[in-house]
Amino acid sequence: xxxxxxxxxxxxxNDLGLPIFxxxxxxxxxxxxxxxxxxxGFKAATTDIEVVSTWWDKFPDxxxxxxxxxxxxxxxxxxxxxxxxxxxxxxxxxxxTFDASWQVKTPTGxxxxxxxxxxxxxxxxxxxxxxxxxxxxxxxxxVIFCGSNTVAGFYESIPGFDPFSTQIQDLPPDLLDKLxxxxxxxxxxxxxxxxGERNDSIFKLASNLVSSGVFGDxxxxxx
Length: 223
Known about the structure:
alpha+beta
């Protein structure tokens, strides 16, 4: 799809508007695979074309790191497939199916499934978000994006879910429920909110709290 890593990196910025930063592809030292190549890591991510061009001129084989969270406006479900665990099997057992939004195949056979950031802080959840091998990347996290080639292999968009030709979707309500450790139904019942208004009400309340300077655990405890 792309002729070079730099071309892929520029497309992610120009076509998708995502901030990016260069990551080590691990060809020289596999132990450093996917680690940032800039000192401030994912915090250095930018949409500045000149900066991105300079980075990939310096690191022509760099993988494309994309920070998750409010900085990029996206979050990701990270399904890990390895010899000792299979997140796809775990996901199948939960009954969750994802037939929309952006999806990227990872070199080991896993997936990154992207959704819009909900607009309020959401933490990373590693190890067992939906079970073994299914993680969540939110504020303070990052993923390697499609168009990257590493020592482990290529990160490729999945046909029908290509970020460059499909729309990213909102997080499903039941996943929001898990992320915020609150039951959406109870939230509505306690406050006399109709079923169709519950998610909007949660977001309105959370947005008001954020505007008032409430963040992190304090915010979650007040929802």
